[in-house]
Amino acid sequence: MSNNSLQEIYGRKGRIVTDQDAREIGRVEELAYELKNRDVMSREVHTAAPQMSISDVLMMLRKHRISGAPVMDGEQLAGIISMEDIVRAMSENALSASVSAYMTRPVISAHDYDSIVKSLETFTKSGLGRLPVVDESGKLVGMVTKGDITRGILLALQKDYHDEELRRYRASHLFEDITSDRTSLILRYRIKPRDFVNGGQASSHIKRALLRLGAPPQLARQCGIAVYEAEINLIIHSTNGGILRVQIEPHRILMQTTDDGPGIPDVAQALTPGWSTASSEARAMGFGAGMGLVNIKRCVDKMELESTPGKGTKLLMEINLSAEEKFKGGAEHPEEPPV
Amino acid sequence: MHLSEILRIADGTILTPSTFTDHEIRGGVGADLMSDVLAAARPDAVLLTGLCNPQVIRTAQMADVRAIIFLRGKQPMPEMVELAIQENIPLISSEHGMFELCGRLYRAGLRSFETNMNGDHE
Question: Helix (H, G, I), strand (E, B), or coil: what is residue A6?
Answer without folding.
Answer: helix
